[in-house]
Amino acid sequence: MPAELINRLGGLQPVVAPITTEPAFAARPRLLRLRDALALAASQLVPARWDEPALFFFDPRRQAELEHARGPAPDRFGALTAHICAELTELIGSVEVRRVARAIDGIYGAARALAAHCPAARDLADLLAVPDDEVFLALAPAERTGVRLHVRGAATVGQFHELLAPTHPDAFQLFVPDALRADGTLPGGLAGCGHWLWPDQPLAVVPRIRGERVVLIGPAVLAPAAAERRFSGLHAGAEMVQTLNPFQVTDALSRLAGRPVPAGRAAGAPAVIRAA
Prior knowledge:
Layout: H1 2-8, H2 23-43, H3 60-70, H4 78-93, H5 95-103, H6 107-114, H7 119-128, E1 134-140, E2 145-152, H8 157-164, E3 172-175, E4 208-209, E5 212-219, E6 237-244, H9 246-257
Parallel strand pairs: 1-5
Antiparallel strand pairs: 1-2, 2-6, 3-5, 4-5
Helix pairs in contact: 2-4, 2-5, 2-6, 4-5, 4-7, 6-7
């Protein structure tokens, strides 16, 4: 009764706080619908009979006649492309939304299945493959130095190279762990090019070993190329988790090599990689 009287007399009114929804939570129903649209499109892909190649002529005149007779190719994925692009901006801008998308079963697989046919689906698959919030172990065998970095938003090896550069004083080349030889060294010169990580490769190619991604650092053979951003608006960053001492690096190298590697470091090498 008193509250009703106050309201009738124009007194204090109850205050209702506005309800806000977390962007990641709000995105989930939309991402589920996107997953279903991707899965439907992937299920409708028809493989070429006998895997025959597309018909073409080496004669430019006859090829032009063929293309004219065919007319413009229908846009099979126009609606799906628009659907994907409507979500990409928020996915690129929010790691929380990317986490939700990765937790939805089937969305990455469907996007990857369509990647060769729909550029927007390829962009989505590549974005979902970005190793957000993962720990990278970077070891320099010759110097017996190393760091662990918590990395987010780096889509390519080149971007990771730039994040790692402040922790390493000299020009360097990144290697996959398989490059490590039994004596704990890396192949020199162009002999190791088969084990190099190239700047334009997706960072997801770095192998995960015992829960963390591992790269090896060797001397630069070629001038490092400038990193190109795979996704405009995707911010790449790294935080130092640990700076390893030479004994910890030797132990890590021994585990990678599957046998004990010699302790020690190269003459004149810094005792630890300097943190940025």
